[in-house]
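Trying the structure run again after the queue cleared.
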Amino acid sequence: MSVLAADAEVVLRDGSTVHVRPIAPEDRDRMRAFLGLLSQDSRRLRFFSGGANLDWAAGAAIEAGFPGSYGIVATRGDDRIVAHATYGMATEDRAEVAFAVADEMQGMGIATTLLAHLAEAAEEAGILWFEAEVLPENHRMVEVFRDSGFAVRTHSVPGAIHIEFPTTLGRGARDRFEERESVAATAAVSSFLAPTSVAVVGASRRAGSVGHETLRNVVDAGFTGPVYAVNAHADSVLSLPTFRSIGDVPGPVALAVIAVPAAAVVETARQCAAKGVKALVVLSAGFGETGAAGAVRQRELVQVCRSSGMRLVGPNCLGVLNTDPSVRLNATFAPSFPPSGQVGFLSQSGALGLAVVDHAQALSLGLSSFVSNGNKADISGNDLLQYWEQDDATQLIVLYLESFGNPRKFARLARRVGKRKPILAVKSGRSKAGARATGSHTGALISASDVTVDALFRQAGVIRTDTLSELFDVATLLDAQPVPRGGRVGIVTNAGGLGIMCADACEANGLAVPDLPDALQAELAEFLLPTASTANPVDLIATAGPEEYRLAIEAMAASGAVDAIIAIFIPPLVTRAEDVAGAICAAAATLDRSVPLVSVFASHAPAPVRLAGARVPAYAYPEDAARALARATDYGRWLGRDPGAIRTFDGLRRGEAAAVIAAALKREPGWLRPDEVATLLSCYGLATPESALAATPDAAAQVAERFGGPVAIKAVSPTLVHKTDAGGVALGLVGREAVAAAARDMGESAAATGHVVEGYLVQRMAPAGVEMLVGVVHDPLFGPVVACGGGGTTAELIRDVAVRVSPVTDRDAHDMVRSLRTYPLLCGYRGASPVDVDALEDVVLRLAAMVDEHAEIAEVDMNPVIVGADGALVVDARIRVEQPPPRHPWPAVGA
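Done. Tokens:
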């Protein structure tokens, strides 16, 4: 038994990695060498004797594949074992666990991580408890167990300490592992952004080349540590002496920046590993982005890094930079170095990264650090999120993403980080995010666009923008101003037309432009000209000067009537834009940092003006300001939103559900039979009308007669997706003859369109209600994606659907239903009786629970779900199962 179906790279406390895999018979010699290198004390603590027979111990370790036992190893270098962990069955539901870690690797978190792998494997094998015997003086191992986060119990026995704990990775243990993961990721990224020394390998003497410009940038930025130039064919570059290879550098090298031809990169990386380099930035192109040969080269590069514990940014990237005055690192070939600020920026595109750095400088948008991770073969956006989370210099995180490696992990991290620091993202590929092979209404709705990415960002609180221009608009706002507390906007302008345009743009983006209180309008009238308008927008008229702007903004902010202010200026003949900008900033300096203030300068947008510590973003058009403010307001609403809870349900028949799925997989992966669908839904309390299968039209008539009253019949065919289109559904049938005739017609219609009817499903007619759709598609990256929307035969026509990425909370279900355009139908539209909305939410949550607990469920389409006054019935459903991909143990390198 092996939960490690695929090898895993695990990040250690210092940010380096080890390779974790199941132990194998061919590991005997490696295991013997590992045990032989343990100190006498380590062997005594592991085997309770310093004189243990190591040949026997190595043989016993590789036999950990026999029933009831399991063993894993951590390796480095040329598959050198540096740690071993195993468990063996003690009783039916208990196993004894033991570890050994190389002396030089102790204290780096290996034992704790291997414990998580063992526990996950044991839980899948039905083992409920781990236990261990530890010598009293083995304080380090006792602390490993205590600090693991598992619910550890200890008691003393003669000559030893007995330890036991459940194998379930509960909330406490997960919190501990998340904390360790964050520490490891921070250490890894720090090795790139705060190195003690830098070597540029491929530092060319040719101006304009990547190697030359990168070395120039490192020097010109004033990097605070030693800088080494490596060039096999020159004696000096930029007045720095050169070294023929990285191995010739006299001092230690913390960060190596590689700018050599792609064919030479792997060998250069090997030399860096031999030198003891901790971090590698590969600027060179010619890897996975170029095709099959490049992909092979990239795998070789990653393997070199993995085997030595060295971390990698790139390949095919722009590089990294850090504006911290104590570091001053610019290991990029960008033409400029941005001002220091509080924005952390990640770009998967090197070319776009160049534009980002240049544009940030033009906008006076200061960066704390910047990483272009190119092909992201190792260091990922998830690693950077965890680094920026703890980086005091970073208060705003901006991401340009082209793809996800581990979106579920991204969502978990973003949800946590976003509570402290806003995360802005442009995700490319909005038009065709998922060409999924689906066979249901739900699959068609979800695969039609990247609604899954939208759902992921919405749940995680990530502010998504559609364009780079909008990204910078929102970034400059959040970099300079507080997050809005609500959506009420006050507008101050000297041009009525622009004020109206701004109000329209605000409302189009979900903001409100409320009427101002009488008291505030009276206060404004005291200092404005009689021809000015004190309504909202407040029209100061064209002759207004800087003082009117300052007073109007201060009065509006102090009134409590608005949550944000947009000040609009178009130059008349006499008033200068610079003077008004100064007045706006002077007003901003008096605000209590609870009301954000933005400006629009219609003729030209000056860079944000600083005055008395205040900085106000400036836009060229009212629509830009309104859109940026709306995105920031959505984030503020997310911050104040109750995330809800994962609902638990009593009486679920999980074991029976697993048996249904297992039987179907044994037969053949694919769509379940109608009786299996009904059983699976009933296991999770999802109600369906009384129904029965019939093999022939006459048998269907007999079932209908037994049911009595009107019935529905449906053709059963594995190839019929849209039964109605093929004449495969008949409703409201009464009597034997009507049912038999309808069934015969179905068989003929199906045959005419190339389908084979295997039987007929006869159902009692459901009570009247609103037709809805609830379903799931299991995305290979995102996991279960839950959808709820308008149902029936027009589901794909009206395309009214709300989507969430699992896990789904009760608040998610509540918001999904209420976000639909068809929601008024549930509330009693045009005199109709309202229906049981809570019952629909319950269906969403029960389905989410089912797919969360059974990864084999690939697709569920429940359409229609009839929502009536007294509940919800799943009238038609299709469920597809398949063997899920191997599950990687947690935590590991990934993203």
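The chain has 28 helices and 40 strands. Worth checking whether this holds up in the mutant runs.
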